[in-house]
Specification:
Layout: H1 20-29, E1 66-68, H2 74-84, E2 87-91, H3 97-111, H4 115-118, E3 130-132, E4 147-151, H5 156-162, H6 167-198, H7 203-213, E5 222-227, E6 239-242, E7 248-253, E8 258-262, E9 266-269, E10 277-281, H8 283-288, E11 298-300, E12 308-315, H9 341-351, H10 355-358, H11 362-365
Parallel strand pairs: 1-2
Antiparallel strand pairs: 2-10, 3-4, 4-5, 5-12, 6-11, 7-10, 7-12, 8-9, 8-11
Helix pairs in contact: 2-6, 3-6
This protein binds Gibberellin A9, 2-oxoglutaric acid and fe (ii) ion (FE2).
Cofactor: L-ascorbate
Enzyme class: oxidoreductase
Pathway: Plant hormone biosynthesis; gibberellin biosynthesis; Hormone biosynthesis
Length: about 375
């Protein structure tokens, strides 16, 4: 197992005034998902005080843009989508549909294992990979109605624990997820190129910038999310509102459940579009574009009738690469100071939604 570039990150925001035991208990509670099959009523621990009424139904002009990547207008549509929404669908993306179907099948297979078997692959205190509740769970008093499996670089370490004897299943799962990482990485790099174009960078600028991000990270983090059928969806939360730390996130959702916050409107559903992938702008892209592209606040809701699965690929720079506002976009001054993805994940682990604010450059704080 290669040492992960993120493995030294620790979450220590909840250690104040607690003993080591409290800390471990607290952490265990915030990492171990419920055995969803064993409950028929929404437990108090999973009942959120703020109920979330159905989002506004969207009229044509308010729905998330769908961009056909083979359309010559894709670049200008992308600029509009990134400035106004921070999220869009892409079609004609080149990722084989049978691979996407198989990613979902394999993910269902993993999450339908008995709870005690899944717990063999539980994420450890100081690592990002493995089975468990979303990492941001410690920031919320209530538990989310979901479980996740995070793959950092390779799924092998954890799948060995899930399927110790079934080599065939394990190899198949790993092959499918690794192909998914490769395909998603290729697509993310293509979309990054289009985004640079849409920010007004010349082809030469793009050529100079791209090698900084590319290649080394061809198997970036993959997050499998599972949202089991919920007895009382209006009082539960699948994944609480957050932005992603990545440059871009590529999401496969085969049924609707994702919602985004739109200024002046509220929560807008991102309907599943057959064959499409959802692309959202992450915090590092907001930094790189000097605030032109907004990292979008989003959440996932649950439902009463079907077990929803989603898969997110987080595209970001290699570990030592500093991300800072592009010089071409930094007039009159850069809004953010340079940071690496690794450093930023550490800040996010401690300060969650305040992380972006914390790396605003001194010059803007002095204003
Ligand atoms: C590379 C990443 C990106 C992570 C951390 C790490 C692995 C898991 C990702 C998520 C997935 C769920 C939402 C989020 C907010 C979370 O809690 O874990 C994400 C977080 C981030 O985008 O910051
Ligand atoms: O399940 C979804 O639609 C959203 C998943 C997500 O936001 C994430 O994994 O970061
Ligand atoms: Fe997300």
């Amino acid at each position: 197992m290669p040492t992960s570039q993120y493995s030294s990150l620790k979450t220590n925001h909840h250690t104040k005034n607690t003993t080591k035991d409290d800390h471990n208990n607290n952490h265990q509670c915030s990492i171990i998902p419920l055995d969803f099959k064993s409950v028929s009523k929404l437990p108090e621990s999973h009942t959120w005080e703020l109920t979330h009424p159905n989002p506004l139904s969207t009229s044509e002009s308010e729905s998330i843009p769908v961009i056909n990547l083979s359309d010559p207008k894709a670049i200008s549509l992308m600029r509009h989508a990134c400035e106004n929404w921070g999220i869009f669908h892409v079609t004609h993306h080149g990722v084989p549909s049978n691979l996407l179907r198989e990613v979902e099948n394999q993910s269902r297979r993993l999450f339908s294992l008995p709870s005690d078997q899944k717990l063999l692959a539980i994420r450890s205190l100081d690592s990002l990979s493995g089975y468990g509740l979303p990492r941001m769970s410690t920031f919320f008093p209530k538990r989310m109605w979901s479980e996740g499996f995070t793959i950092i670089e390779s799924p092998l370490e954890h799948t060995r624990k899930l399927w110790p004897h079934d080599h065939h299943q394990r190899d198949h799962f790993c092959n499918v997820m690794e192909s998914c990482q490769k395909e998603m990485n290729r697509l993310a790099e293509h979309i990054m190129g289009l985004m640079f174009g849409s920010l007004g960078l010349t082809q030469q600028d793009t050529k100079n910038i791209k090698p900084k991000y590319g290649c080394q990270n061809s198997n970036g983090p993959l997050q499998l999310n599972s949202y089991p059928v919920c007895p009382d969806p209006t009082k539960a939360m699948g994944l609480a509102a957050h932005t992603d730390s990545s440059l871009l996130t590529l999401l496969l959702q085969s049924s609707t459940g994702l919602q985004v916050q739109k200024e002046g409107i509220g929560w807008v559903p991102v309907h599943a579009v057959e064959g499409a992938l959802v692309i959202n702008v992450g915090d590092l892209m907001q930094i790189l574009s000097n605030g032109r592209f907004k990292s979008v606040l989003h959440r996932a809701v649950v439902n009463k009738t079907h077990h929803r699965i989603s898969t997110a690929y987080f595209y970001g720079p290699p570990k030592d690469v500093k991300i800072e506002p592009l010089i071409q976009l930094s007039s009159p001054f850069p809004l953010y100071r340079p940071t690496t993805w690794k450093e930023y994940l550490g800040i996010k682990a401690n300060h969650f939604n305040k992380a972006l604010e914390l790396i605003r450059s001194d010059i803007t704080k002095a204003q």
